[in-house]
Amino acid sequence: MIQSKKMDLKLDARALQERGQLRSVRYGDSGITLNDRVLVEDDAPAIGQPQGVVDRAWFERLQLGIVLRKELLLDDARALCARLVFAGIEPDDNTSPLYLRVNGVDTVRPPSKWFHPYARQYYTNDWGGSHFDNWFVVDIPTGALCAGKNEILLWSDSVEPSWEIMVAADGEYARGSRTRSAHPDRSAKSRDGGKTWDSERLGWKDEIDGEYCVRLNLQRYAQSGVYVSPVIDLAGQSGIKNFLRVCQSHICWEVEVPDECVARVRTRFSDSPLPSAVGWSDYAVLDGALTAPEGRRYAQFEIELITNNPLQSPCLHGVSIKSTLVESPQIGVLDYRFDRIEDNRVVRSSVEYVYEDFAALTGLRKDFDLDGILADSSGEFDAQLRLLRWAYQVPLGALDPYAWRYADLLQTQRDSQDDLILNGDYGKRRRDGHCLFSNLALVAACTAMGYPARWVNISAKHTYGHEVAEVWSNEFGKWIFMDATRDYYLYDPENGKPLSLVEIGDRLSEVMPGPATWEFPVQWRIPNKAALSGVRVAYREGDHPYPVRSDDEVEGEDLLMYKGHIQMPLRNDFASNPHPVPWRLSSNWGSDQFYCYYSDQFPRKEEYAHQTNRWQDFNPTLNGAELFLCETDQRGVINVEIDTETPHFDAFIVRVDQAEERVLRADFFVWNLHEGINHLQVRTRNSAGVCGAVSQVTVIAHQSN
Fold this sequence. Notes:
This protein is mainly beta.
């Protein structure tokens, strides 16, 4: 007898954001709203040292008579808070204020030693000082802003040069961006106190055309953004899906839409739980609630949030689904129960990361005999540790920051027996050269061997920081931090598992009495390094006599305090695509190619536009096979669909019971059960031949009475 039943499913904003994708929207206490920060800038593609320029000529030195003018365009002047953000240098022990005028409204930024006495990194050379450029933040009155062109003037009344402001050179724009290939000509300098202006000869040597690195960070809502839901089972089932039909489903979105705001909902439907499956309907725009098409079991929606008032945002609070389900009878002679399911859940980022094709580094793999180095490794993680040690030892040249390629960096050296020469012990803990270089070597080697890896910048003090790497571990099912400059990583002392940078930052947060900001960095939140003993991490040392942490070496604790703010470029395909360059020779990281992770204890850095506080966005899960098992109208016949997020995916490797593994390039197959114990194993394989973690299911079946 065919029976029907009712199903009520409610998903609040917290549940929706867990596996959803948030594009220019964010999740907060009130729900899912538009991003609440907007960065206005025109210098990011070209920031850093221009090619061939020396003597810090890409900085403007302020002194009596010199006035800088910067123009920034605003579509709307309304904001809850406004900050002027600029890249520059303040001399050690500076005593001269910086004067700012925004549309005729004056603001004074006193010397840091008086204005922010705890921010020693800005005015003493023990933490950086004048040999590093930094980002400075100055609050400005929102009432000074206007729609359209905003004029910003900066000057100093010191006789000798005091403050310096960075110039982004026009010639670097095409190198740093595919879309912003030239500067918009919104910067000028006056040498006579503002009487006449020169927009072509900037910098203290009057030799650079470009833009001053001056930005506006506004606390206001973005104009638009999109939330994309995960695939939703209208039957409300997870795990094993019963054989039934959705004969009616009513979907209602709880969206708060203030005046001057719009929320547009688009939905699509399918018979498959896979977002990439063939057969999905086109997205359709709807107004209000929706009755789903009969027989379609799966839905996905996206909601576009729009505002014409930057002080207001639509807010998605949740969605409710009421369905009528019909249980259809099954035929056959097998009864069964699912005994065990070990699955690898797919969690996708809201942003796209471009992974290098493993084949692009085949030459590196061969030239450095990486297969030989890993030949007798005991497993994947052991292999990755061997690559870490290799990157610590491999001879490196100088990376050309203006022609970004792995090939420029790695140096092949062989002895008379044609064996590769690696550096021996350095006589100190840190290997020579820029910290970026050895970790790029690690990223390149891991990628060549089929292990997704990425370059990450860490910094908790100020702009100055440290370059490290993270590698995806199939064995641990997570990203793990590694540092090839010192051949070490951090792990959980309770279980021995290596940690990701997000996890390390979370643990560091536990001992901090307050948030780490630019004026109160970690080093002032934790002035006594003894407090770091409370951070739940342990140091893995390499097999050499120079530990990161010892009685006479406290470098490990210093490095731990860097692991708060995290930013990375959204690609590692530098072998096949060196353009645009993500970084130039400079201490500065202010490019628009960086994506940043922040938390309550490590708040957003004002100079960056692209930020997230969701671990899902920063740490997507890779190489897993998520299994969707659905009963059919025949007992003992199971439809298996597989979802994955595998860079350069090749195939699924499937084993049923004790049979030989078979290669499956489709994402669907039929599993015919037999009486007794049924066992299914599925894993992914990428184009380099590396397999992901195994997902497995055990089903016990018997003859029905």
